[in-house]
Write a structure and sequence with these properties.
By secondary structure, the chain is mainly α. 58% of the residues lie in helices and 3% in strands. It is elongated. Helix 6 packs across helix 8, helix 11 crosses helix 14 and helix 14 crosses helix 18. The chain has a 3-stranded mixed sheet. Among the domains are: 96 residues, Potassium Channel Kv1.1, Chain A (2-Layer Sandwich), CATH 3.30.710; 117 residues, CREB-binding Protein, Chain A (Up-down Bundle), CATH 1.20.1020.
Length: 408
């Protein structure tokens, strides 16, 4: 039972309410010592020779439900002392009945029961092996003796030295996969993902990840190769892989090309979106100039003041310069002036986006509405695509005029 909090209803009761809840008799006239002796040595109603044992003490606030949940979590706590004992059993080899023979013809003593429990593959090997002079000999070739020693030690106590792990992590990954030790495999993958991979060994890690069924590690290797392909492709590991596994090298090159294509496409779309945003801002600034006026340019019925604060439309200043050039330019033949041509395009784009041509104050809005009927289907399709893109940007970022007005 948890200790009561400050807001507990019991703490809000006064003495009178407690007194009314229970039948309490006062003992002012009796000797308190007699009462204490009666409590300490109660008399039995059955027999004077038997005494009732004392009640156990009340639970303290330490053993509360708040600190000790009713249901323990599904995990196991392994004390350091327990790990140390298993580590000691492995290192001393007391009662060993197995010899693990390594590449250097070294013998590592072990216990068949521990190996069978820790690795089902080793358990099958031990079951099929015959003992000679009370000892079973099994071979783990192809890896350094120190790696086999670290692997066997992990089977006993899950202990390892970080320096050894870092030195033989690739060998331990192979051993953990070959002999089905998932905990060690996860540990090796974790350490390599946390920065133990380098440009020199990433190709080796990639090939092992492919053979040892480690898809996440394989993906991380591919991403690292794509990111720094120029330097990694010049390493010795890449050259060996190119000779031994040309198909894998071709897949990696295709991944790099695909990643570059995606990057270029992403940049192209970003630039394209930037153009549409600029066109949207130009449309908003054009409406602002023709409807409200901006400093020295605007409709004739507006009183303009050069001293007024500049507006918050980013495209307003550039558009104001373009409008002034358009009104004063003498070269107005089609294709004669780049700036005037750009202004014509902005006016036509506005006309195609405008829903109120009769009341619109932008010049030539009605003119371009009538001109649309005379355009070819090819030009009409191009303009519709452009209008749809600008409207999509307008919906995505919201009307610029509303954003700018909030800044005023």
């Amino acid at each position: 039972m948890a200790s009561p909090d400050i807001d507990s209803p019991w703490l809000s009761l006064n003495g009178d309410s407690v007194y009314r809840s229970f039948s309490i008799h006062t003992v002012d006239e009796e000797n308190p010592g007699d009462i204490l002796s009666e409590l300490e040595a109660p008399k039995s109603s059955v027999s004077n020779n038997h005494t009732i044992p004392k009640a156990p003490p009340l639970p303290t606030s330490i053993a509360t439900g708040a600190k000790y949940p009713k249901r323990l979590p599904e995990c196991c706590f392994l004390l350091k002392e327990t790990k140390a004992k298993w580590d000691k059993l492995f290192k001393e080899g007391y009662g060993a009945d197995v010899y693990i023979i390594t590449r250097a013809n070294s013998h590592i003593p072990a216990h068949s029961s521990v190996l069978s429990v820790a690795s089902p593959v080793l358990g099958n090997i031990l079951t099929q092996s015959k003992a000679k002079n009370g000892m079973i000999c099994i071979k783990i070739p192809g890896v350094p003796c120190e790696a086999v020693y670290a692997f066997t030690r992990f089977l006993y106590s899950s202990c390892y030295e970080e320096e050894e792990m870092k030195k033989f992590v690739l060998h331990l990954l192979v051993l953990s996969h070959t002999y089905s030790v998932p905990s060690l495999k996860r540990l090796c993958i974790y350490h390599m993902e946390q920065g133990w991979m380098t440009k020199e060994n990433v190709i080796d890690v990639l090939q092992l990840a492919l053979k040892c069924d480690a898809p996440r590690l394989f993906f991380i290797c591919v991403r690292m190769i794509v990111k720094d392909f120029k330097q990694i492709s010049s390493t010795e590991g890449w050259k060996v892989m190119k000779r031994a596994n040309p198909a894998l090298e071709q897949d990696l090159v295709e991944s790099v090309v695909e990643a570059d294509s995606r990057k270029e496409e992403r940049l192209r779309k970003m630039e394209e979106k930037k153009v549409y945003v600029q066109l949207h801002e130009a449309m908003e600034a054009l409406l602002h100039i023709c409807r409200d006026g901006c400093r020295t340019i605007g409709p004739r019925d507006k009183a303009l003041r050069e001293s007024q604060v500049a507006c918050n439309f980013p495209a307003c200043k550039g558009l104001e310069t373009l409008v002034r050039h358009f009104s004063n330019c003498k070269t107005r033949v089609p294709g004669g002036c780049v700036h005037c041509k750009r202004m014509w395009q902005l006016l036509e784009l506005h006309s195609r986006m405008c829903d109120e041509p009769d009341s619109c104050k932008v010049p030539l809005c009605r003119h371009f509405k009538e001109k649309m009927q005379q355009q070819t289907k090819k030009d009409e399709a191009k303009w519709k695509l452009l209008v749809s893109k600008v409207i999509a940007v307008k919906i995505a970022i919201g009307p610029f005029s509303s954003r700018s007005s909030s800044l005023l």
